[in-house]
Amino acid sequence: MSRSGSLPERQVIAAKGLVLASDGVATIEIARRLSVSPDRVRRWRARFESQGIAGIGQIAPGRGRKPSLPDGTVAEIVRMTLEERPADGSTHWSTRTLAEALGVSRETVRRVWADHGLRPWRAETFTLSNDPRFEKKLVDVVGLYLNPPERAVVFCFDDKTQVPGPRSHPALASDDARARTDDDPRLQAKRHH
Q1: Which residues, other chains included, contact 44 with Cβ-Cβ below 8 Å and sequence gap of 6+?
Q2: Cα-based distances in Å from 163 to 122, 159, 166, 175, 179
Q3: What is the distance between the terminal CA atoms of the chain, rounded to a whole angstrom?
Q4: Is 134 within a domain?
Q5: How many alpha carbons lie under 13 Å from residue 65 in its C-beta half-sphere?
Q6: Are residues 49 and 80 in the same domain?
Q7: What is the pLDDT of residues 63-103, one digit of tens each?
Q8: For residue 41, is it within any domain?
Q9: Helix (H) or strand (E) holding 49
Q10: pLDDT of 175-193, one tens digit each?
Q11: Strand, coil or helix: 152
Q12: Closest among 39, 112, 41, 50 to 80, alpha carbons compared
């Protein structure tokens, strides 16, 4: 246990302290070497005497961090995330909006979402296009993935619909961005200047 790389740190440190104690090292010296209080070393020894190896590194009942959320808060966070939408018309909750609605911290909401595998910003539905040629395009694209031509390279681009309006940076594409060819009069006019 004292050499483990996978056990919790508190167990490894307690085991190291008990090994030192079995070698006859004094309590104060063990505390100094392991950067803990002498009182903690005494508790390790007492727990080892009463519980044996099973007690090494265990947190005594009544100690440790107490849950700070009222009963039902986690269940309510999960329920609202899955069943309700924000009053402002958003498609899903953010950590900020849900935290404000429930009177908890954003970190609490984030932790509950992570513990329950919730990602409300990810759409779980597929919306079909109203493009009359959609089916043919779909078959073509899926065909490239299922049966690509020999030595083919397939590039896939997805627009970012959540990024509104024209870009302010000149290097980025604007709303009216389009492929320009050598016969584009705007491109030719820029070359002559």
Answers
A1: 14, 17, 18, 21, 56
A2: 16, 9, 9, 11, 20
A3: 76
A4: no
A5: 3
A6: no
A7: 666 667 788 888 999 999 888 888 888 888 899 999 999 99
A8: yes
A9: helix 38-51
A10: 444 444 455 555 555 445 4
A11: coil
A12: 112
Backbone φ and ψ for 168, nearest 5 degrees, come out as: -90, -20
DSSP string, 80-142: HHHH---TT--SS--HHHHHHHHT--HHHHHHHHHHHT--TTS--S-PPP--TTHHHHHHHHH
- Residue 49 in any domain: the answer is yes
Number of domains in the chain: 2
Q: Which residues contact 14 (CB under 8 A, 6 or more apart)?
A: 44, 56, 57
Nearest to 60 by CA among 50, 73, 71: 50
Residue 41: other Cβ atoms inside 10 A = 25
Distance, CA of 8 to CA of 12 (rounded, Å): 7
**C-alpha dihedral, 95 to 101 to 105 to 107, nearest 10°:** -20
Please tell me the distance from the alpha carbon of residue 141 to that of residue 40, in angstroms, as a whole number: 65
* φ and ψ of 41, to 5 deg: -60, -40
pTM of the model: 0.36
Q: Which two tokens stand for residue 125?
A: 């539905």
Domain housing 109: 73-116
Position 184, amino acid: D
